[in-house]
Here is the input.
Amino acid sequence: MTETDLSIPAALSRKLDESAARFDELQRQLNDPDVLSSPAKLVPITKESGRLETLVARYRSLLKAIDGVKELQAMAAGDDAEMASMASDDLPGASAAALEQLEALKDEFVAAEDNKVDSFFLEIRAGTGGEEAALFGRDLYEMYRKYCEVNRWHFDTSDYSVSERGGFKEVIVNIKGTGAYRHMQFEGGGHRVQRVPETEAQGRIHTSAATVAVVPEMPDVQIDINPKDVEEFGCRGGGPGGQNVNKVETGWFIRHKPSGVSFKMTEHKSQTQNKERAWALLRAMLYETERAKQHAEVTGLRKSQMGSGDRSQRIRTYNFPQNRCTDHRLGGEGGGEKNFNLDKVMQGELQPIVASLLEMDKRERLEAV
Here is the structure.
């Protein structure tokens, strides 16, 4: 183990220094009587401080560990034979521990921005394939529901449209929970299924598709929407899975005329709450659309769906005859694809895929820094 192995890239070090300085400033503000007496000031400062605390603590712990390794290296190269021998014995363990801290810090750094999002909308829409595409949309819905259930994330259906055979033409879900957005942000894009449809009498394999969008809810972002551009009214609610439709108008329908975005919100029993949630979703969708547009203009292309909001690119294929789920973004630096057990994936065991995507995302973000 050499000193170079533990060096922190200069650009990353600068950003971490900035985060540490910001954290110290927030701590000083939290001791200010004017801040403590004002909830409007105290709440956002406390939230920001909480988000930075773990990252800064890891950074400062790593710096101490690196200093410790340097001291051992100096002792191992010194003239005192006994001290040099002791330092040489301790050096491998200290270096390994510091390296482990460095990797944990990188994980924390790349996750910091994502962890600001504690609520987001997952939208599934049936694509090519008619009824079979809608049934596949429902399969994706159940897959995500099971994954969220295992992780104890809130999974609330906000809007849906059911096909003749019980599939989903479209469905919107609100998901909340620590780490939920971090782990599910990569699901946006085109999902393709290859299987024998229920409607196929001759046993032929068909290819259908559905698209998924992951839209973070950003309460601090202000989106100006002209009321004249919005059509909205109360409607009856209901729920997926065969629940009776409400006999009273507790739902809320909203349409943004310039963008063509429209949906109904039936998540809550209160129409007032559903109206508020409908507007929150509309703002989130319009914000994400604009952000994706700016991202495309800056990069000049739409790459993988890593947070870009681009639903046009096919990201995954679900091959039922071969029990294979293929993620087309994975496969190492040499390109290619990576396969997973389809039965397990459809039961909500998405962690192997997510772990691979997180590692790829970490590598790309650190390279960008």
About this structure: The domain at 3-112 is CATH 1.20.58 (Methane Monooxygenase Hydroxylase; Chain G, domain 1). Residues 39-76 form the longest helix (38 residues). The two ends are 25 Å apart (CA to CA).
